[in-house]
Amino acid sequence: MVPEILKRMDMLVEGGSFLGKAEEVTLPTIERTLVEYRGAGMPGPVKIPQGWNEMTLGIKLCEYTPLMLSQLEKVDISGTGLRFVGAYGGDNPGASTVGIEVVARGLVSKLDFGSAKEGEKTELETEFPLTYFKLSRNNEPQIELDFINGIEKIGTVDLAADIRQILGLT
Hints:
mainly beta, globular, eleven-stranded antiparallel beta sheet
């Protein structure tokens, strides 16, 4: 078995495609926030989940595009709509192509213009701390985290449904 390799991708910012201009996309690390607890009679500590750590999405472009530069205008924490689509496939006989889509929202925190040298490719690196992240595989949601609306879904399991109901958010 050969692993799935990214064959083609596109990165969209506010619906505008960076096909041929996005060189690299750094998808966020999904990491739980865990707090250590050791109560009376417990022979050792346990880790208790307390939400999620910050998620950041990065994009490396090969030009200074007005669409990306204009994202600095946004001041709302949900700021910019981001969408990554990738076609992944293996080289196994009969292997089908898998679609991975990431939909996210976040406020641009960094535009790194790098260095400029004649005859060399331009690089613009960006960072977006995210408030929303959803990853789907072949249009089936796998992970959805919405920090503003308290949504925490893994596959078909809604980890925070009872909390949202208690707080009157449903």
